[in-house]
Amino acid sequence: MYRIMIVDDEPLILAGISSLLGWEDYQCRIVGKASNGCQALKLAQQQKPDIVITDIKMPAMDGIQFMREAIEGGSHASFIVLTNLEEFSLVREAMHLGAVDYLVKLELEEKSLVGALKKAMERCDYNRRKGLMGEEEFSQDTLEEKIQNYFRKILVYDDHVQAGEPLLGIIRERFKHVAVMLINFNYGYEGFSPAFTREDQKKVMGFAENIINGMVKGFFEHSCLLRRDQNGFVLVLSLEGQKEYERQIQVMSCKFRQVMKDYFEAPISIAVSSPEGELEDLLYQAMSAMNQTYYEGSEHVVFYSKLCEKDEKHSSNFNINFLKKDTEAAVAHNDSRQFGLIMDQVISLFEECMPARPQAVNACSNLYYFILSLIENREDNSFPYDVDIISHLNRLDSLKSILRWLEGFRDEIIKVLESSREIRVDKHVEMAQKYVAKHYQEKISLSQVAAALNLSSGYLSSTFKKQTGIRFSDYVTEVKIHKAKELIGTHQYMMYEISDMLGFDTQYYFSTVFKKITGLTPKEYEALQIKKGIL
Predict the structure, then answer these.
(1) pLDDT tens digit sequence for 66-113
(2) 194-228: string of b/e by CB count within 10 Å (b at 16+)?
(3) Of 67, 230, 290, 460, which residue is least crowded by CB atoms under 10 Å?
């Protein structure tokens, strides 16, 4: 494996380069990152990287000076330099010092990085053949990785581990006084739909890990960031020499939150343990503090040491089952107005009772599946069925977010009910038209058809006019006159016979209606058809 170190004063550049490649596919492993030349020089002495990707212009010590001092200190690393378009004079100096290639930041892409990486690998292989780099040094796990694995087993895998004496000594020296911070990403919802897909979440977590790692170094000399799950991280902070560690954490967290919001539109919740206790206890404290963000929202850091001891107002026996009967009736009748009122009542109960997170998630998921069971078998149902709703609800960061979810759920179901009602109206009109088509030879009245369809006359009259644009009686007349034209066209019946066949009271009435619709009497219509040669 080739050991890679990345140096840049911009956290997003560090994150971008770190995430640009699947490094293991190229037999590489990132062993360190630094934000300026001074940090990089110290880190290079510890990690002894094979390949260094470094910016040229940086604070404290620029890339040229860093390269020069690293080489003078005995480093045999292959350097790739990062530059802006106006810095080519510095690029020439870097190449003169032995850099294998340069990359323009604005044009950086996977292909160009892989090309530069291959040149650096060739230089590494050449140095190995000359005996400048030992094979044992090349394959050894880094100290940072060992420390990370130590903390990961305790804080992520809940495993009791015993570190070797040398490593344990280093950990005790670096982490004499520590606090545990939890950083949770609240991916949330846009309306009722998840704002992030699982693939989006993976990308965000990858970039965020690199950004947080880079930013925390500006506040704490020693730290260890671990990915806890798909939603967040656990960060071990060494408080040695930090007299006002809470203020430092506040400022750092504010920067974390702003960057995540600006670049990923993902709010985060942050909770911090007290600075005293065993690691397992500190993790539990941070988790307790994180639970408190559910009520307080994610705008501020919650410190375990500052949690109020007073009893919370929330109810552990929250239940909304008494609303099921009314809800079922509203959905069955596509009564979107009544359903909206019921959901407003549910939301008011959440606000009043302030249920704990488990109770709120349980109530929302039960409500979701209950309503879904009422509408999922409809032909007109277009509501998305989400089998992972509990996971989505658990990712909501606060009670306020759950209330927003309920509002979105209410609005989506109202859309379904209104759509169903419109489709149902269409079906009623269609059924009425089919009835007329079957019974056009009879006398047809609105009340007669409404009774046959089990509808009220007023409802059928208004919905028919709304859907077709004409009154029901006019539609019946049009159907009868259309049939009359067909019968006249056969030249097989007398006009009084046609009048009787179509259910008119008298031939005179038939002739009057026919002329009103066509502008001709039945006899005139027949003569015109003969003249046109149709008959």
Answers:
(1) 999 998 888 889 999 988 866 677 888 888 888 888 888 887 888 889
(2) bebeeeebeebbebbbbbbbbbbbebbebbbbbeb
(3) 230
Residues contacting 60, CB < 8 A, separation 6+: 36, 37, 38, 39
What are 307-341's pLDDT values in tens digits? Answer: 754 445 555 567 788 888 899 888 887 888 999 99
**What is the C-alpha to C-alpha distance for residues 290 and 394, in angstroms, rounded to an integer?**
13
Which is nearest to 260 in space by CA: 251, 269, 273, 248?
269
DSSP code of 385?
P
The C-alpha atoms of residue 105 and residue 111 are separated, in whole angstroms, by 13
Q: For residue 134, name the pLDDT band (cuts at 50, 70, 90).
A: very low
Query: Sheet holding 268-272: strands in order across?
Result: 223-229, 232-238, 178-185, 268-272, 302-303
pTM of the model: 0.50
At 225 the three-state DSSP class reads: strand
CA distance 484 to 153: 88
Average pLDDT, the chain: 82
